[in-house]
Specification:
7-stranded mixed β-sheet, 5-stranded parallel β-sheet
């Protein structure tokens, strides 16, 4: 059934594929959408506000996405300070509430409140949460909690190159589509005047020589840096989020890992757009160039499904 005006709400923290799919689903069901975006005050009161982006950042990211799919004119974003927002105001002529399977209860609470103020119940259209590429339902709260640990008996799967091995930086490479993992690999690109869209390093070369300053690798002293913790043989939530944010940013980003950055190749492959290239070091051989496409994403996803989840 097609509706005229839909209501939906949420925090939309760290806009990700699950959010985008939810919005696309809503727009496929209704001509227009009123999106209730939780205020900073609401988040502080109900979710402690820990690690959650500000209202203005979340709103801006939504607007950028809606503009990119040419649907901005069909969505009105309103700030909400409670569960109900405009859904209990008679001037909004809603004919559906769109929820996920996790927020059906909230939709039912809204209908209960509507009855109390003399309004009719609204049908609930339920969107099934997309399974994340990491094997858990997409939700910013989930992203912030799950740690992936590589079992020792699977480490051999990463020892063989995942792409073409090369000793030189390829010619005519596009910096905007280039991701480098590892100090030596990153330095090779910077030495050629190529500043990767995203560089992930740990300030160690082959776990022995420590790099004191990023200038040793070829970065400028004023290069913006994101610091994350990521112990050996793991992929932490903050690493995933940092990579995701870097690849949706307009800036070129440097992530410095406290721990080891080796497994960052996997979330980099999963977060990057098709057509990008991820480069990482191959001991004794040079570096590996992995072209990002659906096939390689599936390979990375299948491997991550075998990781232990903490």
């Amino acid at each position: 059934m097609r509706y005229r005006l839909a209501a939906l709400g949420g925090t939309f923290d760290r806009l990700h594929r699950g959010h985008r799919d939810f919005l696309q689903f809503s727009l496929s069901k209704s001509d227009y959408v009123v999106l209730g975006l939780t205020s900073d005050a609401y988040i502080k009161k109900n979710k402690d506000g820990l690690g959650i982006e500000s209202y203005e950042i979340r709103k801006k990211n939504l607007q950028i996405f809606l503009q990119s799919i040419q649907k901005k004119s069909r969505v009105k974003i309103v700030q909400i300070d409670d569960l109900f927002g405009p859904t209990i105001l008679p001037e909004y002529k809603f004919d559906v509430i769109i929820v996920t399977q996790d927020t059906v209860k909230g939709g039912e609470e809204i209908n209960k409140k509507r009855r109390e103020v003399g309004l009719l119940d609204l049908p609930l259209e339920v969107f099934s949460l997309t399974k994340e590429v990491y094997g858990v339902p997409i939700a910013s709260s989930t992203i912030r909690k799950v740690i992936f640990a590589l079992p020792a008996n699977l480490r051999f799967l990463l020892q063989e190159p995942w792409g073409k091995v090369t000793e030189k930086v390829p010619r005519n490479i596009e910096s905007e589509k280039t991701i480098t993992v590892g100090d030596v690999t990153t330095k090779m690109f910077l030495d050629q005047g190529i500043h990767p869209k995203l560089a992930i390093i740990d300030l160690y070369i082959e776990r022995e020589h420590s790099v004191k300053k990023i200038e040793e690798l070829g970065f400028s002293s004023n290069q913006p840096v994101t610091h994350v913790k990521n112990p050996a043989a793991t992929i932490t939530p903050e690493l995933v989020v940092a990579i995701r944010e870097a690849l949706t940013s307009k800036q070129h980003t440097l992530i410095i890992v406290e721990g080891e950055e080796d497994l960052a190749v996997l979330p980099a492959l999963l977060e990057a757009d098709n057509g990008c290239s991820v480069f990482y070091g191959q001991p004794g051989q040079g570096m590996v160039e992995v072209e990002v496409n659906d096939k390689i994403k599936k390979r990375a996803q299948d491997l991550l499904a075998k990781f232990d989840k903490k």
